[in-house]
Structure prediction request, 137 residues.
Amino acid sequence: MATKILLPIDHTDQKSWKKALPVALEQAKFYGAELHAVSVIPEIVQLPNLPAGYGSGAKAHVKGAVEAILARNNASDVPVQIEEGSVYREILKLAHKDGYDMIIMASAEGEFPNYEIGPNLARVVRNAHCTVMVVRG
Prediction:
């Protein structure tokens, strides 16, 4: 039984949420669980040739984009968290730290028998402490 569900969303790729979001909403309703969304942006490394403060608005921009996706899909009450770093590592750290008992992620498109499982999804499935539901693209 799930009490807390995590849904990773990449605001630049609708395949990451188009099918997974309705499934996550359905699972949260079925279990009476909390649903939370997370988006991970790459860590911005300050290089000498970049201006000071480069990337300072990235988190706010991504959070706004994810909130807009949720609002368009009747899920505006879902809290959004933005993390910085490696996608799979941040998902795993957050899921473990905050006690999520289910992660719902979409796979890339593919046809039987060669469904596509990208490296981030594969690592989350292999290393998560909790149930991972893969929604086929």
Observations:
- The chain has a mean pLDDT of 90.
